[in-house]
Amino acid sequence: xxxxxLRRLLYxxxxxxxVVLLVFLIMAITPGDPATNNLPITATKEVKEAYNASxxxxxxxxxxxxxxxxxxxxxxxxxxxxxxxxxxxxxxxLPLTLRLGLVSFAIAAVLGVSLGILSAIKQYSFLDTSLxxxxxxxxSIPSFFVAIVLLLYFAVYRGVLxxxxxxxxxxxxxxxxxxxxxxxxPVLSRMTRSAMLGVLQQDYIRTARAKGVPEKSVIWKxxxxxxxxPIITLLLGGLANVLGGSVIAESIxxxxxxxxxxxxxxxxxxxxxxMTCTLLLSAVFMLAMLLNDICFALIDPKxxxxxxx
Amino acid sequence: xxxxxxxxxxxxPYENVKRERDSRFREIVKRYARNRAAVIGLLLFLxxxxxxxxxxxxxxxxxxxxxxxxxxxxxxxxxxxxxTDNLGRDVFARILYGSRITVGIGVGATLASLVIGAIIASVxxxxxxxxxxxxxxxxxxxCVPALLLALVLLAALGGSVANMMxxxxxxxxxxxxxxxxxxLLSIVEQDYIKASRxxxxxxxxxxxxxxxxxxxxxxxxxxxxxxxGMMLSAAALSFIGMGVSPPSPEWGAMLNFAQGYYKTAPYxxxxxxxxxxxxxxxxxxxxxxxxxxxxxxxxx
Lengths: 309, 300
Hints:
The structure holds two protein chains of two kinds.
Chain A: H1 2-29, H2 34-38, H3 45-55, H4 61-74, H5 86-121, H6 126-140, H7 143-157, H8 171-200, H9 203-211, H10 215-240, H11 247-252, H12 258-267, H13 271-299, H14 301-307
Helix pairs in contact in A: 1-13, 5-6, 5-8, 5-10, 6-8, 7-8, 8-10, 9-10, 10-13, 12-13, 13-14
Chain B: H1 2-6, H2 15-34, H3 36-53, H4 55-58, H5 91-126, H6 128-141, H7 146-157, H8 161-188, H9 191-198, H10 203-214, H11 216-239, H12 251-258, H13 267-294
Helix pairs in contact in B: 2-13, 3-5, 3-13, 5-6, 5-8, 5-11, 5-13, 7-8, 8-11, 11-12, 11-13, 12-13
């Protein structure tokens, strides 16, 4: 297992390299350049060319790409727009996005999974029916619209929560977190419900019940463990999304996080900024997928056996 | 002539197959009709479809852009049932015509990814070598953060309806390939495919007549569900100002535009948002209903 994990980690390096290269090439062949996107429209051609040359955009593709790779290895990638080290810029924004993302993830995971389990145990009850209707409803309402409605009611109409920014302590987190959670809870609870229902019909559950295993243990140990694969995949997908998934929430509430940085870098054609974000997001994504496989191996001895020997 | 008409009909060799196909279709319809939520979704979608097709019979298209300076930011009234925006344009007309754009993007991008995905997946199913190469590419492609890729493409291509469709298609093709391929691979292993291959059926005919039709059910369900997802993504991208740009009555762009008027005219945000949610809801209900009707054995 240890060797398998090591191999996967090593395999990540060329994969990330390719992903970053792909994004770099897309940005290179598409129109637009840092000067046009950032200087005032009145700037002359010479000024623009000088700007592009000074940030290094005029260099050849390979110089730019390998300059970026070298920058990543030495920990110093300069932004086209601010001239600062992108790692430092992102570092300043990271805590906000992480706090927002992790809190939302934790709430969504606990509520989504437990509501799904509850729905499955009490299939066709009033609770199950209403939860299912709510889940379908919230899966159809875009989360940014949920945010707008909450913003209209709590911030504009009642005035109890701030409309933007992070200056009101915990109050500033409420609306962004609800926005993020409103999209993920229904997905999680529906998936959990269907996975649990599939397992609860199995013979071994009937056997466990017939043996006199307490219902609690049947649900939490026998059923949940066997239903956990799709749930884990979904949860880790959510965890991988913590860094990049809050673009829209951050943009609605004008929060200075990774998401708004990414958006700004794309609009300003700040290629190293976009590439650094790509690097971070794809690395987190691949780590989450690895974690996913490790979890499977920990839960299921059959999967574990595949990695040994 | 008479003789020809009265000639005893030659027995149709496929009659049994056809009858079976008919009865299966009827059974699916029956199962679908029993599902109350799915029927409600279908009715809701038919109403929306009616609006999309007959928009110009309900209100003239000129109202989408016609502005009336004397009637700016009016709350809903008898003259303007959804009110007017800051230029005095009728919000109802804009939402009605915007449906063509938003739903069009969802359906168009889904169809495009479906066709491209099905072609790539069929190649994977036929040739092991191509499959290996394609899957390595898909591996890399699916590690590219989707939202970031969409934003990069939109920023570079510029915000228009066509570019939105292209972007959403590019982003969702890998998912379609993975999904369709997994269905096709299980079919390729079936005996009837081997049999028809031994019969000398050409590869193209094999794919089009025997492999793809048998994979249709899960693909249809997946595609239906994707339409609403695409619509929501398109609206979200337009909402943050990266998609279809504001003069167009795309619903997300209308919501973006409403941001400046939360205090004075909150209805500018409410109506397009409700329109998106209702349309997505109807499509999701249809998708759920189709899934249950096509595969009654699957657990809900």
